[in-house]
Every structure is written in C-alpha cells, then in structure tokens.
Amino acid sequence: MLTDAHCRNAKPREKLYRLKDFNGLYLEVKPSGTKAWRYRYKLNNKESMFALGNYPDMGLAEAREQCDGVRKQVKQGIHPVVHRQQEKARLIKEAACTFEVVAKEWLALKSWEAVTKARRLNMLERVVFPTIGSLPVRQISSPTILSLLLNSSKENGVTVAAEAKRTMFGIFELACETFRADANPVHQWREALPKNKTQHKRALNTEEIGKLLTDFAGHGGNFQTIYAFRLMWLTLTRPNEAVCAEWSELDLESGVWKIQACRMKNRREHTVPLPRQAIDLLKALHPITSHTKHVFPSRDDRSKPMADATIRQALKKLGWATKYSPHGTRTTGSTRLNELGYRGDVIEAQLAHTEPNSVRRSYNHATYFDERREMMQRWADLLDMLVEKTLKQRA
C-alpha cells in the first residue's frame, strides 16, 4: 500500500515500472520521469488498464477516490474507457448546442411571416445573444436569466424585457422537449422583475372616430396610405392584413375578400364581407395598382406591400399616436358594434378571433357571413355619418 512519500520519492528507471497500491490501483513510473495513475481491471474476462491522471497533479487520495468511482462502473458492466469516450463526445456535442443554435432552430419552426421572424431575431441579437448566445443551453441557469432580464429592463425597457422572457421561455421549452436541457430556467418572476405598465389604448368614442377619420383623410399624405387606413376601418382587419392585401384575394363583384391562411394570425383563411364603401375604394384603386400583386404596393419596391409602419408614422404626424394605435381600430369596432346590439359570435367571427373553448371551436364552424355582411354595411354607413358630422362641425 502506497504512501505520499513512496509516490514522491519514486525515481525513473531504464524501463517502465509500477508501484502497487490496492484494489487494482498502480502508480506507473516511466523512464521520462512521468508518474501516472493506472487502474487495472478485468471485464468480460479481459484485463485492461485505465488512465486516471498524472502525479503530482492528482495526489494519492484523489487517485484512490477516482479509482473507486471507476471500479463501481466496472461492477455495473460499464467499460470505463468506452464510457469516457462517450462522455467526451457528449460534452463536445453539448458545448456545440448553444442557446443561439437552439434559438434559431426555434425561430425556423415558427409559421410566422418573414418580417416577424426578422424582428424577433433582431431582438435576440440585441438583448439576449450577447449574454447567453454562446453558452451551452443545458448550462444556463435561472439566476443568469434573471440577471439578463433585469439588465434589459433598465437598458431597453420593460416591454422589451417581457418579450425577451416570453421568447426565451419558448426556446428553452424546445430544448427540454428535444432532451438538450433538463429544465426550463425561465420562471414567472412575478415580484423580482419590474411590472409592465403598458396599457392598451381604450376604444374611441363616436366623436373621436369621426375626428380621426377626417384628420387622416385630409392629412395630405400618400393616397395609398389614406386608402389602406380607410380599408382597415371599413373591414376591421388587422393593420398588416389591410396593407398587405392582394388583388388575387378580392372579388369586387361579389363583395368578398378572402385573406389567405398564411397571412392570418391563426393561420386560417378569413372571408371578409366588403361593404359598398370598401368596394368603391378598391375599384378606384384598381386602375392604379392592379398591375402589381399588392393593392397597396411599397413606394420603394413595387413588388412588396406597404409597411404598416407607414400608418403609424402618419398618426404620429397628426398627433394621434398617443391616443390611438392602428390595432385599436378593432377594439373600437368591437365596442361600438356591441353597443349596436350585434351578437358577440358575429363580431368575433368578423375579427377572426379564435374560439377559446376547444370543444366549441371543434364543432362551431359557422362564419355568420350573411349577418356579418349586414353588420359591416351598417358599420361603414356609421363611419360615413360620423365623418360627415365632423365636417359640418368644422365648417
């Protein structure tokens, strides 16, 4: 049985020799002077030697401890050499599986529009990747995530930090489901993180609707921007659904607009009844932009649609940005149509909202198209009346 003195005083010889400790542990002394710990074992009736480490980097006590661990593997029928090779390969693979790699894989799986993916990737590159992008996803801890989110709240604002948290949660869920992480380190943190104080803008009252539509129609901007804004109000579609409208989706004779599933938030085709005012608007545009794919082509690249940011810029110029956002059109429309006594199911169908009840969603495929056509015509007539009232007041 060896002592520290034996190990320290062992001198090299012309030939390699070994000093025996116990339970198969040896100190191997090479002619070069290198002293290495070796464990001799037998597995499947075959003797093998396993390298534990060099002396004095690994002392006697540590060598015995390491030897005990390897001996347990042998008793379980595990070949320590093979196990070490597999563990090394696993660590190399794990190190290559960084957060950034999984994040980009997660983004690729999303059925979002390209512009949406680009915005989310931009956020990750600015806010998340500099801190954890190069780290193996399995090694990222909750304290690291919390620190990242706290710093982001200070530097980028609470809203951006909240988006980063939601995004990271989804990415780690993918890592867990594909066995590349043991647990999701993103928690709710109801108290540790600053609260998002962003409030959704309220619905506009009828007087405000009239003033907004009148202001926008007369703001002197590009006529396409004015028409896109008007179409959004006449149909209560989402801003991006309106500005990205394609001529192939429209049947002006029947007064029907079928928005492709790939452009809808819920990825289901949405049929929109067009009131008379919307049909007149589109017919007026037809001679001007019908040679392009999009009803409202981009000014800089006619093969692409107008950006919905164009509407927001116009609202900012008019001083409406603090009181109203384009998406608030739907909130306003829903509120006012409910006041007019229309059924909630009909309004929700017009807004293309997904039924929250999964059972009801499976069996209720009604689109209430005839009711929606009547409702949207009344809505369009109301908008005309409100604009006319505003113009009279200003005269």
TrEMBL record:
Record's signal peptide: none
Domain Tyr recombinase: 199-377
Origin: domain of life: Bacteria
KW DNA-binding (keyword) present: yes
Keyword annotations of the record: DNA integration, DNA recombination, DNA-binding
GO MF term list: DNA binding
Record family assignment: Belongs to the 'phage' integrase family.
Name by which UniProt lists this protein: Integrase arm-type DNA-binding domain-containing protein
UniProt source species: Uliginosibacterium flavum
Taxonomic classification: Bacteria, Pseudomonadati, Pseudomonadota, Betaproteobacteria, Rhodocyclales
